[in-house]
C-alpha cells in the first residue's frame, strides 16, 4: 500500500480550525476573484448605457448557472470522487477519474451551448427582455455559450486539483487571469487607438480568453511532477462505475444549482412586471448574492475534500465536526456582508449605474434580503460538505423548497396587487427556509441514516454502520 501524501495527511490529522482556515483562504480568494470577473464586465458594460446593463442582467443568471454547475455541482462531484478515492488510497482510480471527468465536462458544455444558442431568444423574452436590451443580451449570450467548453473544462481541472488538497494553485491561476482581464475587458469593449471597440461583445470575448488561458495552465500543472494526480489519457479505458461515482453526486448537485438559479431567474421575470429599471436594479443588487456563492464555496471546497477524505478513511466524527466549523465561519461572514449591504445599499449599487429607478429597486432588495444572507451562506457551505459525504438528497430538497417559496410567494405578491418589495420579501423568506432546512437535516443525521431530532454528534456516531 502506498504512503499517504502529506496533503492527504493534513486532511486526516491536522487540527480542524486552522486547517480549514488555511485551506479556505486561497480558495476564498480564487472564488471571489472568479466572481469578480463577472462584476468587472458588468462595471465596464454599464458604461455603455442602461440597455446594456439590462442585457447583462438578463444573461448573468444563465452564465452563473453554467459557472455554478461546472464548478459547484459537477465540479463538486469530480472533487468528491477524487477525494474519496485518495482517502481510500485508490490512487489508480483517482488518476482514471481525470479522463472520466473531462468526458463529462465536454458533454455538459455541448448541452449548454445547444440549449442557449437555440433557446436563448425565447428565454430572454420570457424574462422581460425587449428592444435594444434583448439584442445586446443575445450578442453576449451567443458568444459566451459558443465557448462553453472552455468554462466547463477550466472548472473540471480546477476541481481535480482542489480534490488533492491543493487550493493554492487554482488561486494563483485565477488571480493572475483576473489581472489580465481587468485591462483586456475595457480594451475589447471600448477599443483603443486602431483597435475598434466591440461593445458588449468585447466583454464576452475577454471572458472566454480568460478561461482559455486558465485551462492551459491547469492542464500543464496536472502533467507536471508537482501534481499528486498522474492522468493518463492515451490508451485509457472508460469505466461506467467511475462515471457513476462522479454523476451520483454531480447530477444531484445540478438539480440543486438549477433550482437556485431558477429562483433568481423567476425573480428577474417578476421584477420585469415593474419595468426595465426594476430588472436592472434587481439584477445589479443580486450580483452581491452571487458573490456569496464563491465565498461560501471558498470554505465549502476544503470541507468537501476534508469530509470526503475523512469519511473514506473511516474518521466520520472528524468529518462532521469539520462541517459545523465551516458552517459557523461561513454564516458569520455572509451575515456580516448582508447586514452591511442592507445598511449601505448604494455603496454597492452606485458601482454599476446611477439611474434613480434602478437604484431604488436595488436598494429595496438589499434592505429586505441582505439581513438574511447568513442563512444563504449556511445552506451553501453545508451543501458542499454534503457533496463530500456523498449525501446530497436533503440539500437538494432545501433548494427546491427555496424555489417553491420564492416562486409561489412572488406570484402571490403580484396576484394580490403587491409592490416590488413584496416580491423581494418572498425571496428573503425562501433563503431563510433554505438555510435552516439544510442545517436541520445535517444536525438530524442526514449523512448517516434516518433523520431524528435532537441529535448529538455522539448519537450520530452510534448510528453509523460499521465498515
From TrEMBL:
Keywords, comma-separated and alphabetical: Cell membrane, Membrane, Transmembrane, Transmembrane helix, Transport
Subcellular location, principal: membrane
Topology with respect to the bilayer: Multi-pass membrane protein
Subcellular location: Cell inner membrane
CDD domains linked: MATE_like_3
Membrane-crossing residue ranges in chain numbering: 20-40, 52-75, 96-118, 138-161, 173-192, 198-222, 242-270, 290-311, 323-344, 364-384, 396-414, 420-448
InterPro entries: MATE_fam (IPR002528), MdtK-like (IPR048279), Membrane_Transporter-Flippase (IPR052031)
NCBIfam families: matE
Name of the protein in its database record: MATE family efflux transporter
Originating organism: Acidovorax bellezanensis
Lineage of source species: Bacteria, Pseudomonadati, Pseudomonadota, Betaproteobacteria, Burkholderiales
Amino acid at each position: 500500500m502506498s504512503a499517504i501524501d502529506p496533503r492527504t495527511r493534513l486532511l486526516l490529522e491536522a487540527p480542524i480550525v486552522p486547517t480549514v482556515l488555511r485551506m479556505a483562504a486561497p480558495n476564498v480568494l480564487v472564488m471571489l476573484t472568479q466572481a469578480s470577473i463577472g462584476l468587472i464586465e458588468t462595471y465596464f458594460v454599464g458604461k455603455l448605457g442602461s440597455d446594456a446593463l439590462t442585457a447583462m442582467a438578463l444573461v448573468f443568471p444563465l452564465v452563473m448557472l453554467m459557472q455554478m454547475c461546472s464548478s459547484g455541482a459537477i465540479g463538486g462531484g469530480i472533487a468528491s470522487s477524487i477525494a474519496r478515492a485518495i482517502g481510500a488510497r485508490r490512487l489508480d482510480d483517482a488518476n482514471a477519474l481525470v479522463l472520466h471527468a473531462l468526458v463529462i465536462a465536454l458533454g455538459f458544455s455541448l448541452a449548454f451551448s445547444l440549449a442557449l444558442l437555440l433557446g436563448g431568444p425565447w428565454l430572454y423574452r420570457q424574462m422581460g427582455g425587449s428592444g435594444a436590451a434583448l439584442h445586446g443580451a443575445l450578442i453576449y449570450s451567443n458568444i459566451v455559450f459558443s465557448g462553453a467548453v472552455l468554462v466547463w473544462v477550466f472548472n473540471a481541472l480546477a476541481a481535480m486539483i482542489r480534490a488533492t488538497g491543493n487550493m493554492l494553485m487554482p488561486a494563483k491561476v485565477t488571480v493572475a487571469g483576473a489581472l489580465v482581464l481587468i485591462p483586456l475587458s475595457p480594451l475589447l469593449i471600448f477599443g483603443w487607438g486602431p483597435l475598434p471597440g466591440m461593445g458588449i461583445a468585447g466583454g464576452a470575448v475577454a471572458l472566454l480568453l480568460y478561461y482559455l488561458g486558465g485551462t492551459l495552465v491547469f492542464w500543464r500543472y496536472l502533467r507536471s511532477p508537482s501534481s499528486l494526480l498522474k492522468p493518463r489519457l492515451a490508451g485509457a479505458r472508460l469505466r461506467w462505475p467511475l462515471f457513476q461515482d462522479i454523476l451520483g453526486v454531480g447530477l444531484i448537485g445540478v438539480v440543486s444549482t438549477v433550482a437556485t438559479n431558477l429562483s433568481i431567474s423567476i425573480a428577474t421575470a417578476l421584477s420585469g412586471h415593474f419595468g426595465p429599471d426594476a430588472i436592472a436594479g434587481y439584477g445589479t443588487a443580486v450580483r452581491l448574492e452571487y458573490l456569496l456563492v464563491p465565498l461560501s464555496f471558498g470554505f465549502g471546497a476544503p470541507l468537501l475534500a476534508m469530509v470526503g477524505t475523512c469519511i473514506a478513511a473511516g474518521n466520520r466524527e472528524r468529518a462532521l465536526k469539520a462541517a459545523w466549523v465551516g458552517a459557523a465561519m461561513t454564516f458569520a461572514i455572509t451575515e456580516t456582508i448582508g447586514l452591511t449591504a442592507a445598511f449601505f445599499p448604494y455603496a454597492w449599487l452606485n458601482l454599476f449605474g446611477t439611474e434613480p429607478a434602478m437604484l431604488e429597486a436595488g436598494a429595496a432588495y438589499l434592505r429586505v434580503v441582505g439581513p438574511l444572507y447568513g442563512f444563504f451562506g449556511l445552506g451553501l457551505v453545508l451543501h458542499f460538505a454534503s457533496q463530500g459525504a456523498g449525501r446530497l438528497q436533503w440539500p437538494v430538497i432545501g433548494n427546491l423548497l427555496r424555489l417553491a417559496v420564492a416562486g409561489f410567494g412572488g406570484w402571490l405578491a403580484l396576484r394580490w396587487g403587491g409592490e416590488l418589495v413584496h416580491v423581494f420579501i418572498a425571496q428573503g423568506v425562501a433563503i431563510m427556509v433554505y438555510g435552516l432546512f439544510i442545517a436541520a437535516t445535517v444536525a438530524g443525521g442526514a449523512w448517516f441514516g434516518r433523520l431524528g431530532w435532537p441529535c448529538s454528534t455522539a448519537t450520530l456516531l452510534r448510528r453509523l454502520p460499521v465498515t
